[in-house]
Amino acid sequence: MIDFRSDTVTLPSPAMLQAMMNAPLGDDVYGDDPTVIDLEQWAAQQHGFEAAIFCSSGTQANLLALMAHCERGDEYLCGQQAHNYKFEGGGAAVLGSIQPQPIDNENDGSLSFAKLTSAIKPVDPHFARTTLLSLENTINGKVLSLAYLQQAREFVNLHALQLHLDGARVYNAATALGVDIKEISQYFDSMSICLSKGLGAPVGSLLLGDKKLIAKARRWRKVLGGGMRQVGILAAAGKYALTENVTRLAADHANARYLAEQLSLLEGVSVNPALVQTNMVFAKLDPAINQQKLQDTLKAQGILFAAGNPVRLVTHLGISRIDIETFLTVLKQALKI
Ligand SMILES: *Cc1c(COP(=O)(O)O)cnc(C)c1O
Question: What ligand 1 atom has the least distance to the C-alpha of 62?
Fold first, then answer.
């Protein structure tokens, strides 16, 4: 299958599976798993934080961050489009008694500091306590600039807030900016990273922060049922992902750009290739095109995409340039029918 639905669909390579098989294991709830300890210590240092915690998913890593930064009755500022507001089941409110305060995202994915300022609540028993600003990079495939991140740091310093990054795809951002990951992470009090998206691990995310925050997160992880035992088998895949699969993200970005350029030449498909910054292409299809039929036709030829308007096509390590050529050929044929 050529699967454009998401960069979560990748399968572990033989070398990654070998690393998993060779991993020394122990009970991580007792702090006994050497592979998890190695990943957490290495990742903390690699990203410029004191500590790290391996989590079952990005949703869990973000929830732990929110619950470690905020107390009951606190609120966090975030984007209307933020994953940790819109796509995580309201977990912060449901499980943390933490209120989100969403702000409309600007077209470039950023949040306006003027709008954020007016959303900060005065210290008064009528209001939730504004404690945290949560950003996302990349957001819908778009990259927040280093200049913007620096302004965000100045903003939170001015207002005595903490700053979290949902960095599910932060390596895509670093790749697009052409910078070391620390150039991004330096601005944040905490950061989550998905190992199971473009980086290709089967499972797992990291949350990074100072020792106190990560100790709090470790407690909440256990409470949420996220304490895992011989989980080094997954941490080994995560370490492999971070050491072996980062540099190849540039190929995903080039493939996405190429895909967008080729799609923009097709009748009935509207894409602006200049807007493709990382591994996501958003294509509007002419309303006359029956999307369900198109989806079925392509599926019968081994190609998967999620219907929608715009359609989102994601490139990843399971998709080669040849796969993209195959997709374009099949799509051209299908659109003629
Ligand atoms: C996928 C994603 C998450 C959550 O990751 P899961 O591992 O699917 O729980 C969080 N934030 C962003 C921006 C994501 O894209």
Answer: 10
